[in-house]
Amino acid sequence: MDGPDDAQKEGSPDLLAQDEASGIEALPRRVDRYATAKKRALDIADYLLSENQQHDEGKLLSKKRQRLGEDVSRCGGYLLFRHYFTVNEVRLHAANFCRRHLLCPLCAIRRGAKALQAYLPRHEAVTASRPDLRPFLVTLTVKDGEDLGERFEHLVAGQRELWKRRARGRGSVLDCVEAAVWSFEVKRGRGSGLWHPHLHMVALASSSPDRYRLSHEWESITGDSFIVDVRPIDQEDPVSGFLEVFKYALKFSDMDPADTWAAHRVLAGRRLVASAGLFRGIEIPDQLTDEPLDDLPYASLLFKYLNGGYSLIRR
What is the average pLDDT score of the chain? Predict the structure, then answer.
């Protein structure tokens, strides 16, 4: 079973930038990142549209798979940015997104960026009114297994019971946590090759949750898992912790298309981001483009995906 340190040390070219609405000098790197995600999306679409892979799945599932493959294939065909030159802000104004973030790395990037933009202002407001609260990154894992659905449900049930213990007031290592947001993540275990679901949480607390007590409590709940992690997040740069939570549900850089499709079939429709305490009630916008800056002049930049990358076709 992979430990939390392994999960957090993994690099990924999918990682979203700290500020998706940055200046014109950052646009080339941003477009390159989207191009990398688009290439992976096309690989996944090719797999979904392969007749050799579809014939064993049944007529109804094959039709759904065909539609999903077509959606993912078309996603990100163009990107229209607006450069608000008086304030040097570049914002993604329009794009043809498929909104299949469990299959499409490009939509996953944008969904992660929108989640970051939704939660950071609340974090700033909470810590301004409660300066005693500090951010911590908490990771919970469960033992790897062959059945992703069973392992994922095991993780969800354990997390739910952990929070119920806190709510009952009977004593829990999370009693010190006043606000939390967490996301579920799935990949293959590096050593086992089996499914490895886990969750990352940003927790605001007046003192650090004790890692050893948490490990003991988590094992008492799950019955088979004790590997957890608790580490402080830099209060001057809390974005790093939120990035760990919001990056993606699936490790697109590590998973082949077959595993991506298998995970999608299990996780589609599941709530993969949740919150509690002072973070409760925050909604991640459905719209994947950036908010416009009203009443400011801008120049339009239209990119089209051609020959394996994005080309500027209109300025």
Answer: 88
Rounded Cα gap, residues 253 and 236, in angstroms? 29
Closest among 290, 311, 297 to 81, alpha carbons compared: 290
pLDDT tens per residue across span 251-301: 777 789 999 999 999 999 999 999 999 999 998 888 999 999 989 999 999
Indicate the pLDDT class of residue 57, thresholds 50, 70 and 90: low
Reported as half-sphere exposure (CB side, CA atoms, 13 A), residue 158 has a value of 30
pTM, two decimals, is 0.87
Residue 311 backbone class (left: φ over 0; alpha: ψ -120 to 50; beta: rest) = beta
Whole-number Å distance between alpha carbons of 138 and 199 = 8
Count Cβ atoms within 10 A of the Cβ of residue 113 and give its class: 0-12 exposed, 13-18 middle, 19 or more buried.
buried
How big is the chain, counted in residues? 315
> What order of strands is seen across the sheet that includes strand 134-141?
228-232, 134-141, 195-205, 177-188, 273-277
| Token pair in block for residue 162 | 């952990």
The amino acid that residue 85 corresponds to is F
Place of tokens 């892979």: 53
